[in-house]
Amino acid sequence: MLDPEITSSARLRILAVEADPHVRAVAVDTLEEAGFEVIEAATADRAAIILHARNDPSVVFTDAVTPGELNGLDLARMALTLHPQIVVIVVAGALPTGFSSVAPDARFLPKPYRMAEVIRLIHELTED
Fold this sequence. Notes:
Structural class: alpha/beta
CATH class: Alpha Beta
Helix content: 25-40%
CATH superfamily: Response regulator
CATH topology: Rossmann fold
Number of domains: 1
Order of helices and strands: EHEHEHEHEH
Number of helices: 5
Strand order of the largest sheet: 2-1-3-4-5
Largest sheet: 5 strands, parallel
């Protein structure tokens, strides 16, 4: 059960990108339990298609490493270019090389992370 102080009453839309289906399922379930609407993608390539087709995600929550042509950093840069107001959170085991120059407006969260940390960061960054 999530702490009530991190539960959201707003319906922010989050694009969650994670290749591992089990990790993605936990993230999606936890974010939805916190009151967010979640769009999920297994790859940054799929997430890029979603970002080109939709302008309603408020947050992109992505792993830095995803299979396919694009990785999470490519997605972060693309998301911020297409939607400058979007909040981007990138997770990885270590700070990716060149992170601040590739996506200077994105936030980094080291693995392992707790979903409560992710939710608090989303609230902080979206002023929700």
